Amino acid sequence: MTASLTLTRDDVDDPYVLEDNLDRGRQTLDRIPTRYRQAVLSHPQVAAWATKLVTLARDTRPVPRIAHGPSLLVLGPTGTGKTHTAYAAIAALATSGAACSWLALTAADMYAQLRPRHGVDSEQVFDTLTRVSLLVIDDLGAAKGTEWNEEINYRLINHRYENEQPTLVTSNVPPANLAHALGERVASRLTEMADRVVLKGADRRLAS
User: How far, in Å, CA of 173 to CA of 202, rounded?
Assistant: First the structure.
């Protein structure tokens, strides 16, 4: 069977399941920030990664579901389109016909949500990050490194590594500096679990 980023009726036992997945996926697109709602998946390596996930989802019965598979690490300087690329991948997977629960947030927002504070169960928030099928963490490594940040990164990445849950991480940290910025344990797991894409070029925001 030729690999494809979208499922067809031939890939499912019940065509109504496919239609339901598509409807649910389209509804989640409203959660994409306005700036990125028109993002189209055009990078060949990222498209190939997304196609792997959809191919694996075909074998999930009775409902094709994106649940396990490789992760993706998108690296590049500021303004090279990492966030745009991430949301383009989300949109493609959400409308692939495979069920795909997803959550996208910046590393800074993730730390803010997980920081202990009165009236909030941070472990419950953490559980949400471990359960979602596709997790996107934008700008990992941008915040000043602390022992607490490193421990959060390790716990989350290690959980998703051990359970082979697709995780898309973007970072402006150069590949050679990942261990220094994220810690050796996190960098090692990301290297093993994730396909790597490096975006190059000048800052598009400054050039516009």
Answer: 15
7 backbone dihedrals φ, ψ, rounded to 5°: -85, 155
Identify the residue whose tokens are 């995780």.
167
Closest listed residue to residue 31, CA positions, set 93, 95, 87: 87
By DSSP bridging, strand 102-106 and strand 167-171 are unpaired
Q: List the 167-171 sheet strands across, edge first.
A: 102-106, 134-138, 167-171, 71-75, 194-198
Tens of pLDDT, residue by residue over 155-188, are 999 999 999 999 999 999 999 999 999 999 999 9
Interior/surface letters 76-87, b for 16+ CB within 10 angstroms, e for the rest: beebbbbbbbbb
